[in-house]
């Protein structure tokens, strides 16, 4: 019956004109309470994974690999947690915004290179360097959501360099 109503009202033709992102966004609408619960759950999982990774760092032989996996997974979970608040499409658009596109690209590149250095290249010194770059790029990316903070930090660094 709903299909018949949509065809007769002309909504069916409007549905066919939508993009894939609009269809996904419409299908994934959540209530505000559910969004908050999803954000908190995903953010806590990310934090626990990052802390667990640091704790596992000191295990002999496999500690560094476990640290890299858990820490990277924790960062991915923390990044995905904000998708619950804004929705996936809006979050992806904001990630590619001109003020944070470079920080996003560096952050995602560091996430991928960390895993490549650990598992493919087997170079743990390089993997730890990429973990440090993960922290810095994730921090810089996060600060882009607070107005004028990145400019203030750049000015502070410039004053300290004089």
Helix content range: over 70%
Silhouette = globular
Radius of gyration: 21 Å
Overall structural class, as computed from helix and strand content, comes to: mainly alpha
* Share in β-strands: under 5%
- How confident is the prediction overall: mean pLDDT? 86
Task: Output the helix-strand order.
Answer: HHHHHHHHH
Would you identify the regions where 5 or more consecutive residues have pLDDT less than 50? none
**Helical stretch tally:** 9
Oligomeric form? single chain
How many beta-strand runs?
0
- Rounded to the nearest angstrom, the distance between the terminal CA atoms is 73 Å
The largest sheet, given as strand count, sense and whether it forms a barrel, is: none
Task: Please explain how this structure is put together.
The protein is mainly alpha-helical and 162 residues long. The chain is 81% helix and 0% strand. The protein has helices at 2-9, 11-16, 20-27, 32-56, 63-86, 88-95, 101-120, 124-143, 149-161. α5 (63-86) packs parallel to α8 (124-143) and α7 (101-120) packs antiparallel against α8. The longest helix has 25 residues, at 32-56. The termini are far apart. The model has no long low-confidence stretch (mean pLDDT 86).
Topology:
Elements lengths: L1 H8 L1 H6 L3 H8 L4 H25 L6 H24 L1 H8 L5 H20 L3 H20 L5 H13 L1
Helix pairs in contact: 4-5, 5-6, 5-7, 5-8, 7-8
In short:
The chain has 162 residues and is an all-alpha fold.
Features:
162 residues, single chain, globular, 9 helices, mainly alpha
